[in-house]
Amino acid sequence: MPTTLHPTRAPRRDAAENREAIVAAAATVFRRDPEASLDAVASEAGLSRRALYGHFGSRDELLAELLTRGAARISAALAGVHDSDPRIHLALIGAALWAEVQQVRVLAQLAVHGPLEKTVADALAPVRASVRRAARDGVEAGWFRPDVPVESLARLIEDAAIAVLDEAVRTDLSEPEGRRLVMAMGLSVAGLSWRDANALIEATPQLTSAPVAAAATPVAAGRATPTPSSKGSVS
């Protein structure tokens, strides 16, 4: 009697794998089209719409997961970014932040302007704390403007970074242009003149060409040393 051969079925992915596949697919799909439907995400993940709803009850819930993970990744990436010079510390934060978000600019806009702003803000708390520390140290060292409360100054610096992101989406800034602009704007808001901000960037190797990982190492040499008359100037 002939033996009936059954084709080998691929094992079903378990729930954790499916969830990761959905999140990865969402990152790809929403990067192309922030208004894409859940059907498009399910198709990209190779799953049914029903399977997707087994993990995420709505598009907003999936987007929240995606953006919260992204914010946590940014916080982790910036954890080691520090320099004893608060000007360079602040510029390094801007450079590292730009490196993390510039490839997903539209999604990042949703994170800072959309209904999930509070959720993302909570995940970015370590980054905000680092900005506040740089602002406080810069004011105490006499580099940054002392006429604005530190908390307000830190928020204004954050707003400057968001403004650069908006401009990047509108004008399609290149990676080097955006990276430099986010550093220069943050420093200018903090209290440096635009000339001093650009001079600092030009004189600091980490801020001009080194990758973010290397930028976390404090500068040993090559820092700009403005004259006392330019220290903390605003123009």
Distance between the termini: 93 Å
Which residues sit in consecutive blocks of at least 5 with pLDDT less than 50?
3-11, 210-235
Shape: elongated
As a whole number of angstroms, the C-alpha radius of gyration is: 22 Å
Largest sheet: none
Fold and architecture overview:
By secondary structure, this protein is mainly α. Helix content is 66%, strand content 0%. The protein is built from 13 helices and no strands. The longest helix has 22 residues, at 150-171. 35% of the residues are buried. Residues 3-11 and 210-235 have low confidence and may be disordered.
Distinctive features:
disordered N terminus; mainly alpha; 235 residues; 13 helices
Q: Can you summarize this structure?
A:
With 235 residues, this protein is mainly alpha-helical. It has 13 helices and no strands.
Ordered list of secondary-structure elements with their pairings:
Layout lengths: L14 H18 L5 H8 L3 H5 L5 H19 L8 H16 L3 H9 L3 H7 L1 H17 L8 H22 L3 H16 L3 H10 L1 H4 L3 H4 L20
Helix pairs in contact: 1-2, 4-7, 5-8, 5-10, 6-7, 6-9, 8-9, 9-10, 10-11
